[in-house]
Amino acid sequence: MPSMGFCILCVHGLSRLSSRVGPRGSSALTFCFLLLLVLFSCKSVSQSECWRSREALFRSGVQTLPHNAKVHYNYANFLKDQNRKEEAINHYKIVLRLYPKHSSALNNLGTLTSNVTAAEEYYRKALDISPQHSRALFNLGNLLRTQGRNEEAEVSLKESLLHGPYFADAYSSLGSLLADQKRHEEAKEVYLAGIKNCPESSDLQNNYGVFLVDIGSPQKAVSHYLLALRLRPNHHVAMLNLGRLYRSLNQNSEAGKWYKKALQISRDIDVITPLGALYYNTGQYNEALGLYKEAMALHPHSVQIRLSLVSGGLPDTKL
């Protein structure tokens, strides 16, 4: 509506001017008006190219406002989502040159950095600027855990949940950390708190199911795997976990059903090989061989799959 009103005013103004300047002036006005119309139309066509894709839009923002930290940050996030790490790192660094206190750019740089020392430094710089940055606390906690610094990791993950109580991934990480230390009751409390605060998280339901299997409660795990699938029907990891669970209970028919469902969604090696092992162990050798060959095509240098092709079987492994 504002654009329509602007057009009406322009035409009305042109009409009023034409009536005052006479025929010759009117022709000149009309020519100028048409020239402006053509120029604006060309500009509109040129601008419309920026809307053809998200990347074109972000790149246009960077070209138009090269000294704006926000447009570089948005473009870097897009590049990170596209797994174009080096380009993303470059734009995050530009963000920090323009605005050194951008804590989220520091945090994201940490996630893209392969050097663990540099990554920790980025996370800690982000937390110096924003001590309540729940994602930086979460990422730092996970990094510390990989280094065996479990006490520090626990503190960081708990702080992450303190400042971000609806952050499902932090519940999963903390629950897993506690479970690894055989602190099962504490881990259970963390998982249940996460499920209460993040009822829409399919991954949290799935991870709690894995925890229940690990502590010897496979039947209770089934309901949580099914809840994960209700929340996200294409959650192939939950399907795979159901297959593994039923396989451990010697319910091969039910296990095969879930493996096949997972295979309809993902042809990844971790999905293919368990079904191949099930086929082999139930005497369906041709079906097993076909799946092993497919897995071999995906990972031609895998020693484990080569041994399976030779021996005819693949040991079942835990996801």
From TrEMBL:
Origin superkingdom: Eukaryota
SUPFAM superfamilies linked: HCP-like (SSF81901)
GO terms (BP aspect): protein O-linked glycosylation via mannose
Renumbered ranges of TPR repeats: 69-102, 168-201, 202-235, 269-302
Signal peptide start-end: 1-48
Molecular function terms from GO: mannosyltransferase activity
Pfam families in UniProt: TPR_10, TPR_12, TPR_17, TPR_8
Record keywords, A-Z: Signal, TPR repeat
Protein name: Transmembrane and TPR repeat-containing protein 1
